[in-house]
Design a protein that fits this description.
The chain is mainly alpha-helical and 150 residues long. The protein has a domain of 67 residues: Winged helix-like DNA-binding domain superfamily/Winged helix DNA-binding domain (Arc Repressor Mutant, subunit A, Orthogonal Bundle). The protein is built from 7 helices and 3 strands; from the N terminus they run H-H-E-H-H-E-E-H-H-H. The chain has a 3-stranded antiparallel sheet. The longest helix has 23 residues. The protein is globular, with a radius of gyration of 18 Å. The two termini are 36 Å apart. The model has no long low-confidence stretch (mean pLDDT 91).
Amino acid sequence: MPVTDEMVCFSLYAATRATTQAYRTLLEPWGITYPQYLVLVTLWIEGDQTVSSLGDHLQLDSGTLSPLLRRMEQAGLVSRERRQPDERVVTITIGDRGRELRTELAHIPARIAAGMGLPDEQAAAALIGTLHHLTETMHAVSAQRPVEQH
């Protein structure tokens, strides 16, 4: 067995890649990407978002998010609008096609949960809680100053 198979970080990496591939396969018939799906889910659940708040939710910088949103707008999934009083703020709203996809893609979360071997919502919630804790603690580690070598 390769040594990487015994590393937590590699196991998380491999699981993330497998999950992303599953989403890619499931979403491909609709011609949307996993990041686009995440934008849609956020808008379906949270409602209209500024580009900044959407970036915060999805942990994406504006350099990644802006071209993604531009492509989504061209496909009718979202619309982007500058609103008063601050013209610099762009609000993202769900488009007609994006609204339609909510019903068409409703089966995706259950397919992913089944693929993960999560039998019910409690198991999913427990895993999500563990992953949120892991994310928080790893952010804390990365915020620490590295120990200087002499």
